[in-house]
Amino acid sequence: xxAKPRAASSxxxxxxxxxxxxxxxxxxxxxxFDGTTIRDIAHAxxxxxxxxxxxxxxKHELLMAVMEEGLPAAERLRRLVRTHYGILHDxxxxxxxxxxxDWRSLPAQYKRRIIELKDRYDAIWQRTLDELHAQGxxxxxxxxxxxxxxxxxxFSATWYRAKSRSANRVGLDELAAQTIALxxxxx
Amino acid sequence: xxAKPRAASSxxxxxxxxxxxxxxxxxxxxxxFDGTTIRDIAHAxxxxxxxxxxxxxxKHELLMAVMEEGLPAAERLRRLVRTHYGILHDxxxxxxxxxxxDWRSLPAQYKRRIIELKDRYDAIWQRTLDELHAQGxxxxxxxxxxxxxxxxxxFSATWYRAKSRSANRVGLDELAAQTIALxxxxx
DNA sequence: CCTACCGATCGGTAGG
DNA sequence: CCTACCGATCGGTAGG
Lengths: 187, 187
Fold this sequence. Notes:
2 copies of one chain form a homodimer.
Chain A: H1 16-31, H2 38-44, H3 52-55, H4 59-89, H5 95-101, H6 108-134, H7 142-159, H8 172-183
Helix pairs in contact in A: 1-2, 1-4, 4-6, 4-7, 4-8, 6-7
The structure holds a DNA duplex.
């Protein structure tokens, strides 16, 4: 197990490790884990074939480092999705369904204020989705993805019934999980 | 290039090739193309390591055979999605939006007839999604996937404007393609 | 479809 | 972080 490289120097510190993680992420996405060799990764950052093992004990530890970078954004999306389902279906909150379906009846003056709130909410989603897209976990255009995902969730107001009904015996946790499964391209 | 095996026999004909394709599909899904060896595939159907090359010139031809089996269902979904967007937004057809949003105003008697039509339509989607799910191209539960995908498309009635507007400068072909990209886990 | 095998590549290591 | 290298595995082939 290697300790820190050079002790005291003014030159670039050890972003070499970060370089490896970033390049590995790109190559794993392009060619898959097994399709990418340590040699590919090493040469892409200007190292020789054996050198990455100075930073990582083996290839799988490199994969772990890559995946750990992707987890925060995925977890954030999971929470956004779950929360939105919750707003829609939990505790008989009728506010959102009304907003979704009787939106047109609102005078322009009030509409503007609602739009402002909605824009702020959308921005949170967009940041998360942009990040996931950059990491290759979201295959569609991030902006359209936001519209489609929120559309899918919002439309559940049409068919989801929390307690009653037949085949809809799905909890909100499960529903959120399935939405993520549908939409997130995790390897 | 091999010709047909045995000439005239009553025993099982050459489903050996089909066996290879089916098993390869499963293993490629589980472990990826590069993570699956010809030896894995051969042994899984009770052959020795070199024998698959009697049926396929090389490993990539096996991959091609697997993918060709997945294409029909994916293409069918692509058409369903594109057609549904078309119904929603093309040629100023207001029928579907009205049905989506003023559904409640319909007396039960008429509702039943509409439901019957809708059930038939849903069944077409369901068959396609079931198939894609079985092939690992759809990661969510197939029934929920149908609800979510149709939800995402239907909700576009809320934000998509064919000709006017600013950022929505997306054609229906592009929109359909992005929906597929979001939802289908193609390698 | 099997036996026996080859050349190439890959993950990983020793020693500096 | 480099040089030099090893053992194992893999895709593919010859000959039957």
